[in-house]
Amino acid sequence: TQNKEFVCRGHDYERLEAFQQRMLNEFPHAIAMQHANQPDETIFQAEAQYLQIYAVTPIPENQEVLQRDGIPDNIKSFYKVNHIWRFRYDRPFHKGTKDKENEFKSLWVERTTLILVQSLPGISRWFEVEKREVVEMSPLENAIEVLENKNQQLRTLISQCQTRQMQNINPLTMCLNGVIDAAVNGGVARYQEAFFVKEYILNHPEDGEKITRLRELTLEQAQILEFGLAVHEKVVPQDMRPLHKKLVDQFFVMKSSLGI
């Protein structure tokens, strides 16, 4: 199987390090490569055996099932990791000069999509990659995706909390804290400085729709957070009240910094 690429489904709850060790035990003469970059020609032509192992993210085929309201979470979780043909991994990199004050301005993502010969899981736990596609996502596209994912994550946690599917509200508390804290210390405001300023808008006339989309997502996030804090207030235990109050205070700071 020289110079072939496979996607393999590890054991349940198996960590990447454990999987890597298991593979190296199976191929005792192999040299493990410590990065996910495309190997150069010398590696492909080498006599020695190399193993390159890294984590990939499944791309579900049934997007409409995942986005439809009213479908139980356990069914959604099933579709997120089963019947999957396509997987991807992202490699962040900086193009041009890196702004020390605001790294988002130059943060590009190289996204590689791997398409398999057959969907996982199948008879086997691993299948060969038939095709790989590589695209570059601009800093603005990257920002849009980060916000879309975060808004979706917040919505899911809030609805689980509302419908009492969550015995422990810590995941919601941590998520609210992470988003509000990041926003107060830069987060969304950094996006404003990078993409909503005259200079960027004039230099990138083709990005008009995307800038509008990012603006919508920013406002949407503020609405989700406000609703999330209201839900959180109803269920937060006594000992976490001070943290809740801190979040509410920080949220007001965030709103005013966004000009809402």
TrEMBL record:
Instruction: Give the GO cellular component terms, alphabetically.
Output: cytoplasm; plasma membrane
Looking at the keywords, is Coiled coil present?
Answer: yes
Record carries keyword Cell division = no
The DOCKER domain extends over: 1-260
Record-linked InterPro entries: DOCK (IPR026791), DOCK_C_lobe_C (IPR043162), DOCKER_dom (IPR027357), DOCKER_Lobe_B (IPR046770), DOCKER_Lobe_C (IPR046773)
**Domain of life of the native organism:** Eukaryota
Q: Molecular function (GO) terms listed?
A: guanyl-nucleotide exchange factor activity; small GTPase binding
UniProt cross-references to Gene3D superfamilies, sorted A to Z = 1.20.58.740
Coiled-coil positions are: 137-164
User: What keyword terms does UniProt attach to this protein?
Assistant: Coiled coil
GO biological process terms held by the UniProt record: cell chemotaxis; small GTPase-mediated signal transduction
What protein name applies here? DOCK4 protein
Protein's organism: Prunella fulvescens
